[in-house]
């Protein structure tokens, strides 16, 4: 397998899922600003929109969109138990993947990760996002994971909520979310994935002359 | 089954899927402005975020998020062939459901359907959305549907693209998208679903003193 990723973006969720499943993959870094791989290959030849993740499977298939890639990994490596296998559990998984993808990732956080987004966009997204964060806060109060046990939906949610530290989303306002992030980031697969990508993220920022965020390396 | 819907919103996709499957359901209208059912019941008691669709299944389950609800209907009524059953086809379906939900619905059109969204947000979303529309345009050129045959992903896409007429998205710029919308809107299930909801949409607008859009009734 080959995973096209940009450090600490939503493709981190796929790396976490691969680590959970004990799978090796070639990780091909895409510079999220130049949209080139580190070898200088234009990433738009792989993914026309320049979006990560793109996964090339061992069967030669090309997969994009986190919800689809994460469900592929869960299905392909069932021993890792990354998704429920009963119908009701699968419905819940798909519900959360959709919610995290549309409401939190695309509707809220993505505007802060977009260098061109005007401030008015960010302010409105932040205001509107509060109800979404509150909704997940209520769900996670008294729960360990989104479903009964760790699933690819958690890999996605912990990735997205992890962006809070570089956005104005004050996660501290939501105690269950804060505790969840701390707990899930301590999970070995997540800690290992973050440890692999934080240095690459800091290097990418340095390449582009962006402010230093090396506090991330300590966290 | 009970479907909580607001006329012509993304819940239209679920009605289309139910019609395709030849299933009866109780359709409970939610006023998208007051967030009450037409009987005056606060919809937030059903869905805390006030988002449609919510489907209550015959087994008493509550389902939200279009991607999850649509896949539930496809799985529950396999004879309607609303989703591929092979792994590769399922991956494509999930990819498109995610793309339509995150990139087109949430990332582009939802800002125009949001009465509070500032103009700067709309302008930026429109600019950014062009590449996404172009991507689907390329995919649909020479194709009848998103996958090899009609699927719940088409029910979702035709619903979302159908909003173009009440937004500044000039669908005419994309010939394959325009032809797709015309073709799929002529499909009996889609035509019947739109015919059921357009009058309700116009009534809701009239209730709230919004400008008349009765040209929709002719389309």
Protein described:
The structure is a homodimer of 219-residue chains. Helix content of chain A is 47%, strand content 6%. Chain A contains 7 helices and 4 strands; from the N terminus they run E-H-E-E-E-H-H-H-H-H-H. Chain A has helices at residues 12-20, 66-76, 87-106, 119-140, 152-161, 175-185, 188-207; strands at 2-5, 26-29, 54-56, 62-64. In chain A, strands 2-1-3-4 form a 4-stranded mixed β-sheet, covered by helices on one side. In chain A, helix 4 packs across helix 6 (175-185). The longest helix of chain A has 22 residues, at 119-140. The first copy, chain A, is globular. Chains A and B meet through helix 2, helix 3 and helix 4 of A and helix 2, helix 3 and helix 4 of B.
Any descriptors?
homodimer; 219 residues; alpha+beta; 6% strand; globular
Gyration radius from CA atoms of chain A, angstroms: 17 Å
Mean pLDDT of chain A comes to: 95
Tell me the β content of chain A: 5-15%
Terminal CA distance of chain A = 29 Å
Name the structural class of chain A: alpha+beta
- Strand order, largest beta sheet of chain A: 2-1-3-4
Which residues of chain A form runs of ≥5 with pLDDT under 50? none
**N-to-C SSE string of chain A, H for helix and E for strand:** EHEEEHHHHHH
Largest interface summary = A-B, 41 and 41 residues
Helix content estimate of chain A: 40-55%
The counted number of beta strands of chain A is 4
Task: Estimate the global geometry of chain A from the Cα principal axes.
Answer: globular
- What's the quaternary structure here? homodimer
Largest sheet of chain A: 4 strands, mixed
The total count of helices of chain A amounts to 7
